Amino acid sequence: MSAQTNDSNKFKGRYNEPVPTSNLVSDENDFPEFEPFDEQATPRSHAPVGAPLSVQHVDMCQQINKPNHHTSAYDIQNLVVRRGMEFVMLVTFSRPLTPQDDFQLEFLIGSDPSVNRGSLVVVTCSSRQGGPWSGQIKEMQGASVTIGVTPSANAIVGKFRTYVAVVTGTGLQRTKRDPNTDLYLLFNAWAPEDAAFFPDEAGRREYVLNDVGIMYQGSAGAVSQRNWMFGQFERGVLDACIYILDASRMPIYDRGNVIKLVRKGSAMLNSQDDNGVLVGNWSDDYSMGTPPTSWTGSVKILLQYANTGVPVCFAQCWVFAGVFNTFLRCLGIPARPITNFSSAHDNTGNLKTDLIFKADGTPDRRHTRDSIWNYHCWNEVYIVRPDLPPGLGGWQVVDATPQETSDGHFRCGPASVAAIKEGLLCHPFDSGFVFAEVNSDVIFHKRDRYGTLSPFRVDKTHIGQAIYTKAVGSTASLDVTHNYKYPEGSAEDNRTMSRAEEYGVERDHSEVPDGQLSVSITAEKVMLGQDVNLFVDFQNQGEHPRTVQAHLNASVIFYTGVTANHFRAEDFTVTVQAYQTERVMLKVTAQEYLPHLGSQLSLHFIVTGQADDQSVSAINVTNLETPRLTVTVSGEPRVQQEMFVNVSFTNPFNFPLHNVHLAMEGPGLIDCRSRYYSAIDPQASISWNETFSPRLDGPRCILAVLDSNNLRQVWGMAEIIIITA
Question: Of 39, 231, 453, 461, which residue is least crowded by CB atoms under 10 Å?
Answer without folding.
Answer: 39
